[in-house]
Fold this sequence. Notes:
Order of helices and strands of chain B: HHHEEE
Strand order of the largest sheet of chain A: 4-5-6-7-12-11
Number of strands of chain B: 3
Largest sheet of chain B: 3 strands, antiparallel
Oligomer: heterodimer
Number of helices of chain A: 27
Strand content of chain B: 25-35%
Radius of gyration of chain A: 89 Å
Shape of chain A: rod-shaped
Largest sheet of chain A: 6 strands, mixed
Amino acid sequence: MKKLTKEDTWKTDELKKHMRGYEEDSIKRGEKMRRSEDERRHRSGASVDRRHRDRDGEERRDGERLKEREQKERTKHRELERDKDLDRRREDSREKMDERNERERERRNDREKDRGLDTDRYRDGERGSKDRRYDRAEKENREKERERERYKETMSEREKEKERERRRAEKERDRRSDRDRRKDEDRDIARDVAKMRLQDGEVETERDRRERHRSRGYVKETEHHREGKDKNRERDRKERHGDREQSGYREGREHRREKEEEERRRRDRDLRVRGGGEMRDSERERRHREQKGSEGRIHGDRDRDQERERKERDRHREKRHGEESDRTKREIQNTASSHKHRDHRGDKEVENEEKTSGEDHEEVDYEEDFEDYEEDFEDVDEDEHGSEEEKEEADKDLSPEKREEIRAIQRAMDEENERVGSSQSRPMTQESLPPRTDTQTRQSRPQRGVIDFVSAKRREVNQKVSSRQKKRSAELLRMIDLDFSITFSLLDLPPVNEYDMYIKSFGTTNTRQAYVQCNEDNTDREVQTEETDMSDKWTQHPAETSVSCGGPDQSQNAVGDTALRTNFDSRRLVSFLRSATQVMSVLLEEDRAEKHALTRLKSQSDSLSFSDGCLQLNTRLPFLHGRQVSHLQFSDAQRQTLLSVHAPSSMSSAIRLDTQSIICVWNIWEPSRPQKILVYESEVCCCCFSPGKAMLVFAGTSVGSVALWDLREPSSSHYSLTIGESDWTLRYPTFSTDAVLSGSGHLSAVQSVEPVSVPVSEGLRTELPLLGNQEESLGLSFQLASLDEKGVLNLWVVVELPKSSDAGSQTDLGLRPGGKVKLLHSSSLQTCDSGSSPHDLGHPGPLQALLLKFLPSDSSHYFIGTNMGVVNHGTRHGLKAPPKFYCPLVAGFRPVQVSSLEFCPSGQPHFLVGCDDGSVRLHSVQSEQPLLEWTGSTAGEEVVSVQWALTRPAVFCVLDAASCLHIWDLVEDDQRPVLTERIDVDRVTTMAVFGDPAKQNTYSGIALAKHSGRIEIHYLRKRFTVPTPADSEKLDSLIQDAF
Amino acid sequence: MDDAATTEETGFVVDDITTVVKEVVETTMGNSTYQQSRVNQWTSSVVESSLSQLTKLGKSFKYIVTCIILQKNGAGLHTASSCFWDNSTDGSCTVRWENKTMYCIVSVYGLAV
């Protein structure tokens, strides 16, 4: 804006100079110039109609100027004034043609600032229309020349109308200037240019400014409401309608603009409308004109036009009387105004007039500049204030009455203004300001106007919008809550990696991926698992040593140990093999013996009536040759195990064992050879097995010692004798009481050895719970009783040492090195000492003890067979038992040796006694007297042995010295034996019965030792072995008979 | 002057918003190179902090903020948007930011309450 102002200022200066010059010249050159002015006006693009009319007027004026001047002073005056104006304007316009270009440019710049590109279009359009208009103007000019001729004819008639029109135009101009003045009053800011305005060219300057301002405003308007083209078209059309209409129309437009821009003006108008009662009378005329003029005007415009026109016409009518003089005078005034106003600067009225003249110029200029609308704008004010001006003019020129009228109107107008002013404080105060200030404001007005028009509207709109927006948002925000919405991803398209891209493009073609590799074996393979650990282990069951398993590492570490162990193991292997071979040989020999026995059975079945079969133990061994079997003994636990005692041989032989007794341990299932061979230095009188498992053999010797063999000892630790092709192991006693325990030992030959408290059968066990039960479970913890001829009963405790010592023992001298079992002397009893009772009975001498038996059911009771035919009964602990003696039926002592004493194996308390007088007695333990006594059964022959059959309680065998075997069956016959067998060939020296009372199988039999040294084993016939219920009944009945 | 002031008070001033958004984007991504794994984080961070900064301006607007992050590898991107709104009050603004490895395009739509 400032730039513009400066330029303006500068131009104004120039313009002023020019103006001054032209103004001075203008009067002289008036006529000459008028033509060109006309032309210019045509050229300037005035619309056809308007130009036509104006030109009509002008032409008329031009052509008939002299005449008219004469005829009508007023007209001439006006013409003159107009000419002058025109001159001035021409000068101006020439200059302005240049200046305008400049201004145009500047304006354009401004516009560009505001509007941007639109301006160019607009400008182009403007230019285009301008050119067009110029062309048109030329043509029309020519036409108008012709028209002018015509015009002259109808001049007189038209003259009046034109006059009127002109008058009105003038009025409008006045009004315009008046309005301008008011507008000026509105301005707050005094411009630098203000001073310039006081000078000559100020009119131009002001006008220029106004022009610019208007043009801008116009531009703005058109921009807002219409396109440039529309505007031009419209304007053309409007211009064609003629001045009046145009002005009316413009007024309408102006009005609309006003409404938008300035309230004050609108109010003024409103007031005018309201107070338009005075103008009613012109209503008709207005309508009339309207019909004439308006073609397609919009209603609002028309209304406004009507109002305005009405007012104007009112005024016209009012002033019509003094119109002529008034106008003339005013024109004259106007002509002089330029000079006048210089003299009266502060005078408002003058300025108004001056402006009016300026407005005239402007009008032309606008037409040239196509800023027509601004005229309309001015017109409005003229509407308002025309009356004032007219009044003022009238004051000067018209008659007093007229003046009165005018004043009245002026007053009314003032009142209106006052009202308007009161409604708006600002304009009012400004109006009240001194003229000086007024001037200044007015000066700056156009410039200010530039800003106002451009920005005011925008500002207002913006303010309105923003305030509305503020209000709305304030209200709305109170009610609603804005929130940050959850951010969401509209699209996530990750980049494609190279391989996928490649595959994408690759996949579109008709190809396929494949691979090939030669040397397929060379493919590498990775294995995640670790390599398996491997090691060698061995194991064995049963464990030979403490080590039952091991690995290569262990064997490497303990090579020496294994070597040692090998030796040890070999020994264990030998023992294992021995037992194993024993089992095997037993099995084999059983087979053989059975076959052999079958053949032998046939041969000998005739000889032995009781025998169901027989087998022979192979006693034809070199070291047994010539020895008589003195004793046979079966084990109570292992019924197939047989002890045979071979007495020292009388014949000398190559073998040096002659003086020694030999005890053979046989398994009757293995008759080919004895399992063990036990050797003792002296004659063995008696022997027995350990209770339970037959692993110990005890023997009593003639020298009064008790010997013990441990059959479990390995053969390697014994003396081995090789006779012929076979090796024989000769076992010497593990323990012997010879001379070692002389103090506590036997001093005479041991007649009998018996294990103590060995439960033989289940029946006994249940009947009498014995200590032996526990001892048996403990293995070797049992007692041994030995009885010598003197009747001394020694009790020994069999002790097994936990550990054998190959080096022998210092304390246990009887113990063989490496032996583990020994006898500890427990107690000693004198059983057959010179008791009172035998003396009482007239006993001839001390009793000789021959046999020892313990009660199977109670081992504390011992029974001792004596040489006086009685059996002593006593207890180990000195307690007295009721029958002290068991005597034969014939009372008194007789020198009869008890050769045999046997308890019933079935557990019943019966025992058989055989005597060397040939009598056999059956005793019950409860009775002194025998239950039965058979004296003549053996025909006086000495009874060697009496044996119960183990499976039948009522059957027993008796062997006499005549080698007769008597078999008794008490059930069948209790007086004489049911069967007597005499074996003449090779007499039977001793016998033993075997069998299992618990099993009662057919393997019950009898072993017979022959004089020749052979041992035969005969199986008893079934009649003697199959048990019957009558057996025990018979015995029970015998007992009952006895009592 | 006056209208500028009023516009500044209530209007959608593109310059201010551009400044805000550019600052946010710069602080968020700065000189980082394109990493697909971080793009999600970037976009959400840009969008959220832009929004919070915009609301701090204290204008009565509803805002819509969108963010596009595009790796700079020569690929083309075309987007368009269309709004049905009051032109005198509402406005939009698009900020295009780039560094060596990626583009970030942030669009802000302000809708007067």
